[in-house]
Amino acid sequence: MRITTEKGSIIADKVVVSAGMWSTELLGAPFSDLLRVCRQKLFWFERQQDAVFAPRSPSFIMIHGPGDADVSYGFPPLPGENSMKVATEQYIEDSAPNTLDRTVTASEEQDRFDTQIKGKIAGLSPHVVKSSVCAYTVTPDYHFIIDEHPYLKNVTVVSACSGHGFKHSAGLGLALAQRCIHGKSDVDLSAFSLARFSAAV
């Protein structure tokens, strides 16, 4: 198999594709029918001067209502930092990878404080020290896809990781290396096959 890039060509017997939010454009059907890109906003709110957080405070997931938007997660301030990361996950609005809005507006910052911080997390001010945007590429059941491409021989697809792939990347890398070299891995990956979406494949 020949892979052509702007820096030259690569010849390989097998290819593993893990292209994140560009998977639909790169891989075509059935992935273009299965994957959605969802824009996510991350915020670091300034600690108030009198706020005290216990050493080794845990990360948290806070559910404060019945809706999907009534959930936030966060990480405590690290030593020397004067802010706390608080974020949510949204799967309502889809985005396109090449036009993903990477900016966070002042109104989005205020909305996040009003809906996720105010009256719920003590010790944080409305001032946002920094913000960021990332993208989750999600499947219909929010789990991974790890399988052979149905139309491209010797191409293994590893996507989408639906926002939680980074926690499993080392293990998946090992399993996929075993699969490419030995034809199988120590870990059973069948739960992530395309077969579960048989109507779309």
Automatic annotation (TrEMBL):
Sorted alphabetically, which keywords does the UniProt record give?
FAD, Flavoprotein, Oxidoreductase
Domain FAD dependent oxidoreductase: where? Answer: 4-179
Q: Which domain of life is it from?
A: Bacteria
Q: Which cofactor does it need?
A: FAD
Specify the protein name.
Answer: Sarcosine oxidase
Molecular functions per Gene Ontology: flavin adenine dinucleotide binding; sarcosine oxidase activity
| Xref: PANTHER family | FAD DEPENDENT OXIDOREDUCTASE DOMAIN-CONTAINING PROTEIN, PEROXISOMAL SARCOSINE OXIDASE
Species name: Pseudomonas syringae pv. maculicola
